[in-house]
Design a protein that fits this description.
The chain is of the alpha/beta class. It contains 11 helices and 10 strands. Strands 2-1-5-10-9-6-7-8 form an 8-stranded parallel beta sheet, sandwiched between helices. A two-stranded antiparallel sheet has the order 3-4. A hairpin with a 6-residue loop joins strand 3 and strand 4. The chain is globular, with a radius of gyration of 21 Å.
Length: 370
């Protein structure tokens, strides 16, 4: 065990109120008709993947397997002023008008239910609370257990199950209210955080570092050449990967690209857009629970070295509830002081077990030194 560390899980049950149901009547309009046509052509009973069970499964695992040093604290709703730091007023007006309603917002299946706007405000506000907790010293690290996720939400558009960009709202609040001049956002969700990139594209004081599955995987952005613009050129760092990429590759990226970039940038706060759809159960990439734990140890060490340990995680994607809950659990164990397990090449242990099992069947006695 490393030194024990206190970890705050920031949670507000109002995030469970976001529950789009594709079988209910939505607001009339061209988008609704187009989405109905798409869903009808699937010939399956399609269910909205971003559902409350994503969070309740995490909570149930933490109740069954509590982690010493991990405690809970309440979240809160973000104010319009806090949201307006990263979203336009026109966009906020449109979203607020949907409070209490069901509607499709985007062709990539972003939808709202009657409780969604309230849940999204709480998701953004709870992300702010996580940043405040670590900057104030209330906790060594914090994890905002929130939904809907946020990193696809752009200044003027909802996308990819996201309404408000939670991690961007937290970063902007840290700059405006908490005295953090430079904020590093690490996004390890399997999908590129196009919205976060868009918001901070020309900002030299926010470094956006994104590891993701390469295009044409959704949302299709995040090439190596996307590095920011103007004064922010070089503050955006994208590392697109092929589908089979796993622990070894991720750790090499953390150690050989993220570490020098972060050391050069000198952040006052590190935020992690923590998606868990990079686990193989979500069929996007090949990261294991041990991989998530090891990545957590790497970014924790960076925070200790560069910004007095100020480190906050914000939940993003992950749609297989088993891998999502166990991935979050693995991260929290390391944040609380647990030693991260050593990641391995997927299949290597099983190969060695098979080699040992079959060795005697095919080798002659004189070949035993093989």
């Amino acid at each position: 065990m490393k030194d024990d560390r206190d970890v705050l899980v920031m949670y507000d049950e109002r995030v469970l109120a976001h529950e789009p149901d594709t079988n209910v009547a939505f607001l009339p309009g061209r988008l609704d008709k187009r989405m109905r046509r798409i869903l009808a052509d699937l010939n399956v009973n399609w269910q909205y993947p971003e559902h409350p069970g994503r969070v309740t499964e995490i909570l149930e695992l933490l109740e069954r397997e509590p982690i010493p040093g991990v405690s809970f604290a309440p979240g809160r709703a973000a104010t319009r002023e806090e949201l307006a730091r990263v979203h336009t007023n026109a966009y906020l007006d449109d979203i607020y008008d949907l409070r209490g309603k069901s509607a499709w917002l985007d062709l990539d299946t972003t939808a709202v239910s009657p409780g969604s706007v309230d849940a999204a405000e709480v998701a953004a506000g709870t992300s702010i609370a996580a940043a405040e907790a670590v900057v104030s010293g209330k906790a060594r690290s914090a994890f905002a257990l929130v939904r809907p996720p946020g990193h696809h939400a752009e200044p003027v558009r909802a996308r990819g199950f996201c309404l408000f960009n939670n991690v961007a709202v937290a970063a902007a609040h840290a700059q405006a209210e908490l005295g953090c001049e430079r904020v590093l956002i690490l996004d390890w969700d399997a999908h590129h955080g196009n919205g976060t990139q868009d918001i901070f594209w020309a900002d030299p004081d926010v470094m956006f570092f994104d590891i993701h599955r390469a295009a044409p995987f959704y949302p299709g952005s995040g090439t190596l050449e996307e590095v920011g613009a103007g004064l922010g050129e070089g503050a955006t760092v994208n590392v697109p990967l092929p589908a089979g990429s796993g622990d070894v590759v991720y750790l090499k990226i953390m150690q050989e690209i993220l570490r020098p970039a972060a050391t050069h940038f000198k952040p006052d706060l590190i935020l992690v857009s923590a998606g868990f759809d990079a686990h193989w159960f979500d069929l996007a990439l090949n990261v294991s629970y041990e991989g998530f734990a090891a990545m957590t140890a790497e970014v924790q060490a960076l925070a200790d070295e560069l910004c007095d340990g100020r480190l906050a995680f914000v939940l993003e994607g992950g749609y297989n509830t088993e891998s999502l809950s166990h991935g979050v659990h693995a991260v929290l164990r390391v944040l609380a002081g647990g030693e991260p397990p050593e990641p391995d090449v997927c299949g290597l242990k099983e190969m060695e077990e098979a080699l040992e099992f079959h060795r005697d069947a095919f080798l002659r006695p004189e070949d035993e030194d093989y």
